[in-house]
Amino acid sequence: MTGKQYDRAYFDKWYRDPRHAGVPPDVLKRKVALAVAQAEFYLGRPVRNVLDVGCGEAPWRAALRRLRPDIDYRGLDPSPYAVERYGRSRRIGLATFGQLAELRFEEPFDLIVCADVLHYMKAAEVRRGLSGFAELLRGMAFIEVYAKGDAIEGDQENFVARSAAWYRRAFAEAGLTACGSHGYLGPELAANATALERL
User: Fold this and answer.
1) Which DSSP symbol is given to 104?
2) What is the Cα–Cα distance from 138 to 140, expressed in whole angstroms?
3) Residue-range domains of the chain with CATH
4) Which end of the chain has fewer CB atoms at under 10 Å, N or C?
5) CA neighbours within 13 Å on the CB side: how many for 188?
6) Is 180 helix (H, G, I), strand (E, B) or coil?
7) Ramachandran angles phi, psi of 113, nearest 5°
8) Which residues belong to any copy of the Methyltransferase type domain (predicted)?
């Protein structure tokens, strides 16, 4: 990732301190509902498993389980603090984004979530991690990323302001097809999307 320290102080500041902008619970609830609905629309069935990359303390897990109680959730994060504190109870493993190039699991995922992560990484790690998505993904990826010119709040330390065109190229090179609202279809589902569903 970067030289940032994702320790307890970081999470206390950006996720619990009311003086700093975090994602309000109602916004997270809507975001999770959007991602699940999009994925299920293209899959044609309920989402059964989710990989949450750069999950931090796994706030998506509880929201996902409220929508789909039986969902198989797996989180990955580069923070030793988050994994040591919540790894067992919230099923979080220690891994960087770039390691997705090699990491494989028992089966591919219906939904891969990567929210508010890529714009803090070097370009080489972004491309390296994305290179694994085509094999890891059976359904849709929800990749929330901010580009140059976007109005952002919250943690801007080490924020990399890349152009939207840069991300579009990187996603396309990884075999991902945009379908709107941070949604990206894997190769299997993209083949069945209509021309105007693909952005």
Assistant:
1) -
2) 7
3) 8-192 (3.40.50.150)
4) C
5) 16
6) strand
7) -110, 135
8) 51-138
From CA 141, how far away is CA 178, in angstroms rounded? Answer: 9
Amino acid at 188: E
In the numeric block, which tokens belong to residue 120? Answer: 């803090």
CA distances from 59 to 45, 143, 163, 176 (A): 24, 16, 28, 25
Q: Which helix (H) or strand (E) holds 164?
A: helix 164-173
Rounded to 10°, the helix 25-43/59-67 angle is 60
Does residue 102 contact residue 71 with C-beta atoms inside 8 Å? no
Q: What is the token pair recorded at 173?
A: 């090179």
Which tokens is 47 given? Answer: 């989402």
CB 21 within 8 A of CB 44: no
pTM value? 0.88
**Residue 198, CB half-sphere, CA atoms under 13 Å: how many?**
15
Cβ neighbours, 10 Å, residue 68: 19
Residue in 143, 144, 145, 141 with CA at minimum distance from that of residue 187: 141
